[in-house]
Structures are given as C-alpha cells and as structure tokens.
C-alpha cells in the first residue's frame, strides 16, 4: 500500500516551534518512505479560529521548504461527508442523542437522564450525538512508543449540541477518505487513539499506523502550544529554527543552500530510532 502521511493543523493561530516539529516529523517519515505528504486544515471549530491563520500556516510551511502532494483540504468544506458518516453510525446503533449536561451526569454518577437516547431511541432537541464506547482496551504498536493498550474513558461526542462536528469524527472520516496510512503526531493526542480506533472498527476500516512523539516544553515547563502563548516562528529565522529541531531530535544539521535542500538531507537521516525511547519532553 502506498504510504500517505499528513499534517493537520488547526487555524487557531500561527505555527509555533511545536507545530513545526509535527510538520517536520510527518514530512520526513513520508519522504523517507517514498510516500505522499498531505496538508489538511482542521477548521471545524469557528469560535477558536483566528482570521487569516490558515493562510499564515500555509505560507510558513512553504517558506520552510515543505511541499505537499495534493490540494489542501479544509474540514469546513466537508460537512456533507461527516453527516453521511454520522448517519451511518446512527443507523448501525453505534451512537445516540444525548441531552445530558456534565452537571446532570455528575449528579447521576456518570449516568444519563431517563429521556436520553442512551436508554431509548429518543432524538431530543438540543442534544449532542455520542458514540457508544465499549469497555475493551484498544491495542496498537506505536511507531515511537512500542506496544500500547488503552481504552476510551467514556462515550465521546461526535456532534456537539451547537451542531458543530467533533474532532474525533472529522479526523477519522478525513483520514479514511484521504486513505491516510500513517499518523505521526504529538503525545498530547495519545488519548485520542482509542476513540479513533473504535471509530475505525465501527466503519469496518483498517486504521493507519500511529506514532506519538515527545512534545516540546518551554523554560517554564509548559508544553509549547497556542493556549500557552507559544511564540510564532519567524520566516526570517528559518534555518535557525530547523537547526534547533535537529538538535532536539538527534539529526545532524548540515549547511544547505535552502530549506528545501536541508529537508532533503534530513530525509536521508530519518528513522524511528531517533525518537524511540523518549518518554518525556524535548526542551526548547
């Protein structure tokens, strides 16, 4: 099967060093396997999105030498796909309408209101749609962490009460539709894997290979993220930023005429072993 990887940022702000690391690792792995590398903008949560962030992300990727092998996909233009897949799951009784609030479920010790679709076939208005999670651990051989067994913490949301599609549904639908074979991402998304594996099983589809790599922490011990106000990477310090990432993940940095030339050189060095055994964080 032809290798297909992807980088899927959310347009909640410009790229920072942590998101550049995710782009770099997924890119090097795809290129070292003679595979395709795709870019997808995960813009399904308008309240969190920053105007102009999508264009900024794509411009920055180009400046850093990244080349994608298919037109950029925007989740905001794929609602028909998500609705179709959601209706399939409803028809197969894999999910249900849930009007319960967190407070109400807490008062019921994790239970559901009598009118909830968990108990009946009710389609109550102002409801979320949740996936019926099973209690069995999901197993996978992580490309960086080795064998992992984990299970979903509880039933999880596929469509929110505000009618927005949830990340877990959208990302699995997109990865299936785009025939993604390898998903390399930060370890902060490790908890998403059991939920996504359950969805792949419900869709009777073989899941991609997962690899979860260490995150970058700042000097205060916080992971680099937009929520923690991680600074945007500059297009004037391209080689310096790439050099810093090379030092973090154990790749030799060579002087190159352009970022694109450097990425080609790094591709020749790339292998999973450079990050296998890392259990904690990389430091900036």
Structure characterization notes:
The chain has 284 residues and is α/β, with parallel strands linked by helices. The protein has a domain of 179 residues: Rossmann fold. The protein is 32% helix and 18% strand. The protein is built from 8 helices and 12 strands. The strands form 5 sheets. A 3-stranded parallel β-sheet has the order 1-2-3, with helices on one face. The chain is elongated, with a radius of gyration of 20 Å. The protein starts with a strand and ends with a strand.
Spell out the blueprint of helices and strands.
Blueprint: E1 4-7, H1 17-32, E2 36-41, H2 53-63, E3 73-74, H3 79-91, E4 95-98, H4 102-107, E5 128-131, E6 138-142, E7 146-150, E8 156-159, H5 167-177, E9 182-186, H6 192-202, E10 209-213, E11 215-217, H7 238-249, H8 259-269, E12 281-283
Parallel strand pairs: 1-2, 2-3, 9-10, 11-12
Antiparallel strand pairs: 4-5, 5-8, 6-7
């Amino acid at each position: 099967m032809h290798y297909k990887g992807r980088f899927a940022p959310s347009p909640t702000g410009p790229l920072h060093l942590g998101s550049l690391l995710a782009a770099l690792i997924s890119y090097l792995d795809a290129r070292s396997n003679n595979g395709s590398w795709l870019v997808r903008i995960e813009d399904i949560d308008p309240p969190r999105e920053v105007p102009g962030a999508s264009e900024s992300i794509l411009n920055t990727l180009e400046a850093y030498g990244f080349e994608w092998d298919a037109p950029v996909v925007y989740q905001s233009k794929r609602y028909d796909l998500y609705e179709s897949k959601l209706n399939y799951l409803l028809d197969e009784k894999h999910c249900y309408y849930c009007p319960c609030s967190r407070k109400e479920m807490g008062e019921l010790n994790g239970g559901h209101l009598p009118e909830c679709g968990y108990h009946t076939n009710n389609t109550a208005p102002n409801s979320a749609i949740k996936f019926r999670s099973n209690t069995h651990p999901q197993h996978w051989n992580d490309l960086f962490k080795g064998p992992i067994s984990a299970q979903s913490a509880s039933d999880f949301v596929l469509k929110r009460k505000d009618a927005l599609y949830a990340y877990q549904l959208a990302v699995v639908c997109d990865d299936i539709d785009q025939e993604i074979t390898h998903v390399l991402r930060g370890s902060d998304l490790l908890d998403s894997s059991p939920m996504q594996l359950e969805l792949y099983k419900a869709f009777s589809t073989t899941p991609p290979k997962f690899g979860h790599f260490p995150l970058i922490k700042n000097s205060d011990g916080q992971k680099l993220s937009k929520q923690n106000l991680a600074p945007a990477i500059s297009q004037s310090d391209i080689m310096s930023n790439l050099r810093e990432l090379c030092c973090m993940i154990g790749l030799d940095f060579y002087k190159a005429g352009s970022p694109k030339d450097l990425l080609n050189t790094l591709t020749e060095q790339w292998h999973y072993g450079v990050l296998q055994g890392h259990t904690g964080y990389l430091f900036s």
